[in-house]
Design a protein that fits this description.
This protein is of the alpha+beta class and 163 residues long. It contains 4 helices and 6 strands.
Length: 163
């Protein structure tokens, strides 16, 4: 995306389980989506709205959607406040051989910004900094990775999907 006024872009993809080299089966991707977001304070709201529509359509349980929306909001807000554009939300629901399903929410960005965003810069230290704890509390696990091209932060949550 080149400006905060561009409309978000989305695509949906699905796949089948893959065999690993040791013969075990990787979780099957039931649903998958990528949403580019404007690099603007409205990005978290746009991401929540998009995620709610998707997760409802995918049959995710309402209580789990609530938790997922909070996680999505925190991940996107952190990217807008602390990273460089572009940013994108990646959502995926997987199903393991044991029948368990998980929601993977990841946000990618172009790496750390040289300074914090306008909201973080304008408030006292005790008014921000809780997002990572919120995500860690709601998620089964969290991930982060960085490279020369950017960073990715994610969370994996339990997802009960209607058949």
């Amino acid at each position: 995306m080149t400006s905060s006024t561009d409309a978000p872009q989305s695509s949906a993809v699905s796949s089948v389980p893959a065999q690993t080299t040791d013969g075990t089966q990787e979780p099957a991707v039931m649903h998958q989506d990528e949403q580019e977001l404007p690099f603007h304070p409205t990005a978290a709201g746009i991401a929540r709205h998009h995620a709610q529509q998707l997760l409802t359509g995918w049959g995710v349980d309402d209580d789990e959607i609530f938790d997922a929306l909070l996680v999505v909001s925190e991940l996107v807000t952190n990217a807008v406040e602390h990273a460089l554009p572009p940013i994108a939300l990646h959502l995926k629901v997987t199903s393991a051989a044991d029948g368990s399903t998980q929601l993977h929410a990841n946000v990618t960005d172009s790496g750390p910004a040289p300074s914090d965003g306008t909201w973080t810069s304008s408030c006292a230290d005790d008014e921000h900094g809780r997002g990572q704890n919120i995500v860690a509390t709601l998620a089964e696990c969290t991930t982060s990775s960085s490279s020369d091209s950017g960073a990715e932060y994610g969370a994996t949550l339990t997802a009960t999907c209607a058949a």
